[in-house]
Write a structure and sequence with these properties.
The chain is of the alpha+beta class. It is built from 7 helices and 7 strands. It has 2 domains: 7-106, no CATH class; 203-346, Heat Shock Protein 90 (2-Layer Sandwich), CATH 3.30.565.10. It has helices at 7-33, 37-77, 94-158, 164-196, 208-222, 241-257, 309-319, and strands at residues 203-207, 228-232, 236-240, 263-268, 272-277, 325-329, 333-339. Helix 1 (7-33) runs antiparallel to helix 2 and helix 3 (94-158) packs antiparallel against helix 4 (164-196). The chain starts with 6 loop residues before the first helix and ends in an 8-residue tail after the last strand.
């Protein structure tokens, strides 16, 4: 099969053919017009030597140009996989130097596009994994309350002789599980707003101590027999009251779930809120994980937060320019705290 010659081979073949033709023509003309054999031999030798030097110089130049062409072609062949251009030789001509610089620019742009593509693919994989985790969490958390509602409803439907007191108990169970589903849906909708960037702050001035008391009353109705003790001082802040209600409710309810003892809420100087429980505690290696999305402790199957509770708290506090602080020891309990900026008019 026909193989095209390399650059040097092509140049040398054309050059040697031309040089030999000119040399033969020169010899014929010289012999024709000059009868002195010694002069002719000297002239022919000189011209032959000059042609050899010329051909050698052209050969060196074409060899260098071939080397540069091979290098540039290597860049083009490996444009998608080459990390950086390492070839730093001085090029034979300005055109080759410009070509090399343009290839370097093209390589950088290609690598930049590849990096952007890889980051996008990584984000896409993360989103898909989070979506799968979310669906799994939803299915897990909704299964129990739905099964309870269906079970109690079926019993009431099939057995008309159930005593009124037992019927009332079953209806109460159905109502509580319905509330549980509503709370899960509300948490999911709020998380989705944060993820899509649709959540906005609607700030107002309110008493943080008074809001904490409201949250306490609503949770004591849900967790009957459990104590929530608030101590500290009244503190007026400028924040989103609805979102801060979510923060306090999540933190206090989380403390109630992970502890069988009473929960302590303190509001100290500088509007620092601390929620303390005396429960199982969190290991040092897990403290950073508990605020991540969909993180769930494998030891507490009754936690219906879908792994979003503390993640939502962290996000809301971040919108208010503060952060959640966690202190915990295994077997001793945990303290979750944050600080809100005190409203100036309260001084």
């Amino acid at each position: 099969m026909f193989s095209r010659p390399h650059f040097t081979e092509y140049v040398m073949a054309r050059l040697v053919t031309m040089a030999v033709s000119i040399f033969i023509l020169f010899v014929m003309v010289l012999v024709w017009f000059n009868d002195d054999a010694q002069q002719n031999l000297l002239a022919i030798t000189f011209v032959a030597f000059a042609f050899m030097l010329f051909i050698y110089a052209i050969y060196r130049g074409s060899k260098q140009m071939q080397k540069e062409l091979i290098t540039l072609n290597t860049y083009l062949e490996n444009l998608e996989t080459l990390d950086e251009v390492e070839y730093k030789a001085r090029f034979f001509t300005k055109e080759f130097e410009d070509l090399n610089q343009n290839l370097i620019k093209a390589l950088k742009k290609a690598k930049k596009r590849e990096d952007i593509k890889q980051r996008y693919n990584a984000k896409l994989k993360l989103k898909n994994r989070q979506r799968a985790d979310m669906i799994s969490a939803i299915a897990h958390e909704f299964r129990n309350p739905i099964a309870s509602i269906m079970g109690y409803s079926q019993t009431l439907r099939e057995d008309s002789d159930i005593p009124p007191a037992l019927q009332e108990k079953f209806l109460e169970k159905i109502y509580k599980n319905g509330n549980k589903i509503e709370a899960l849906l509300g948490r999911l909708v709020l998380w989705n707003k944060f993820e899509s960037g649709e959540a906005t702050l609607h700030k107002s001035c309110f008493d943080l101590y008074a809001l904490t008391e409201e949250v306490k009353r609503s949770l004591e109705e849900k967790y009957k027999g459990r104590g929530i003790h608030i101590k500290g001082e009244h503190c007026t802040v400028e924040a989103d009251r609805t979102l801060m209600d979510v923060v306090l409710k999540n933190l206090i309810e989380n403390a109630l779930k992970y502890s069988k003892e009473d929960v302590e809420v303190s509001i100290g100087p500088g509007c620092r809120v601390a929620v303390r429980d005396h429960g199982v505690g969190i290991s040092e290696k897990d403290i950073e994980k508990v605020t991540k999305k969909f993180y769930r402790s494998g030891t507490h199957s009754w936690d219906n937060s879908m792994g979003l509770g503390l993640s939502i708290v962290k996000t809301i506090l971040g919108l208010h320019g503060t952060q959640l602080q966690i202190e915990s020891k295994l077997g001793e309990g945990s303290t979750f705290s944050f600080v809100l900026e005190k409203n100036g008019s309260d001084d």
